[in-house]
Specification:
Number of helices: 12
Strand order of the largest sheet: 1-2
Radius of gyration: 18 Å
Number of domains: 1
Structural class: mainly alpha
Helix content: 55-70%
Order of helices and strands: HHHHHHHEEHHHHH
């Protein structure tokens, strides 16, 4: 498979994901029914999911997606009959735990594949996630610029480190899907820069990962058009892991120096691109 054909396929897939994010952000009916449809596709998963990791990964994203969307709906200011408890702070802690679970799943797989340096990066990411108390919330819903998005004040540097860590993980875990997985990592970055809002990164990650896992669990369309298995080289994976660990350790030192291991007290504005 030629590089040109793979890059063209990646470009079209990234465009689809970008438009999916825009629609999922604004259209409540769409993102609500998408999560229901995703769960109803469960019987198809038996044809495509062939390992414990794939099953855990799919279930740990597509099942909480329904909860994630219902939190948005309950906090949009237009639904009085929804569960009042979802307007409290505890749903943010649930979503925080799901993000940690997402990282831990990959860490365990990295350890299984002896990609120890990259696994250590995952641990650093977990330690430096801003706590929900002051940094996770549901935004306002004015129907024009804000749409009851679940927002998290994750520093731009943290988001970028997550991308390079997760990309290295996929590169080692399943090389044929590396190209398609790279798309779902890059699109949230592009999307938040286009909107000039770092706090949108988490929502971008949630929806792109959800639609990607749904497609992979239902039918393999990626191997025929984006097979990147020939890109894999063991030495490249090793050095990538080492380089990732260097970057993550530097971030950890800076993070500890600035915040001294405490929860963040800095609030990021819509156009902030801070540490």
């Amino acid at each position: 498979m030629s590089l040109l054909s793979i890059f063209v396929s990646m470009a079209f897939y990234m465009l689809f994901l970008f438009l999916f994010l825009e629609y999922s952000r604004e259209k409540q009916g769409f993102y609500k029914w998408f999560s229901i449809f995703a769960l109803c596709s469960f019987p198809l998963w038996f044809l495509s999911l062939d390992s414990w990791f794939r099953w855990v990964k799919t279930l740990s994203i597509l099942v909480p997606l329904l909860f994630y969307n219902y939190v948005r709906i309950s906090n949009d200011g237009h639904h009085k009959n929804t569960l009042m408890s979802l307007k409290k702070k505890w749903p943010m802690y649930v979503l925080y735990a799901i993000l940690i679970l997402n990282i831990v799943e990959a860490m365990l797989q990295d350890l299984t594949g002896q990609n120890y340096f990259n696994a250590a990066c995952g641990l650093i990411l977990i330690l430096t996630i801003p706590l929900p108390k002051n940094h996770w919330y549901v935004g306002k819903n004015d129907g024009k610029k804000t749409y009851a998005e679940v927002l998290a004040d994750l520093p731009l540097t943290w988001c970028l480190l997550y991308v390079t860590w997760n990309a290295a993980f996929v590169y080692g875990e399943n090389p044929p899907y590396f190209a398609s997985s790279l798309c779902i990592l890059l699109v949230p970055q592009i999307w938040m820069f286009v909107n000039k809002r770092v706090d949108l990164w988490l929502m971008g990650r949630v929806y792109t990962l959800a639609v990607h896992l749904l497609i992979r669990a239902s039918y393999d369309i990626f191997t025929p058009i984006m097979d990147s298995s020939q890109w894999f080289h063991p030495q490249a994976l090793h050095y990538w892991g080492v380089l990732n660990l260097v970057f993550h350790l530097v971030y950890l030192v800076v993070w500890f120096k600035v915040y001294r291991g405490k929860n963040y007290v800095l609030k990021y504005s819509e156009k902030s691109y801070g540490l």
